[in-house]
Design goal:
mainly alpha; 2 domains
Length: 108
Amino acid sequence: MSHELSKDAAGGHVAPLGLYFAIFVALLVLTGVTVWVATVELGPLNTPVAMAIAVTKALLVVLYFMHLRYSPRLTALAVGAGVLWFAIMVAFTLSDFFTRGVVSGLPR
C-alpha cells in the first residue's frame, strides 16, 4: 500500500482510500481486543492494558481521521500543548486524591 499523498485543487492532501480502510480495520480489531481483554483476568494489569489500547485507538483517530499527521507543525504543537495540559490536570487531581488525610493534624 502506498502512502504517497497527492494534492487536490485546494492544496490539501488526499490520502489513499486503502489507508482509511486499513485504519478502520485496525480500529475494529483493537475494539475486539478491548472486549476480549475485559473478559481476561490480568490482575493489576487490567487498567494499564485497557488504557494502552484506548490510547492507541485515539492516536489512530487523531493522526489519520483528524488529519493531524499531515497538518502543519504548529497544529501538532497545539495538540501537544493540550495533551500536556491535560496530563498536568490529571497529575494535580491524583496528587490531591492520594494525599487526602495525610496532612498532619487532620483526622484520617
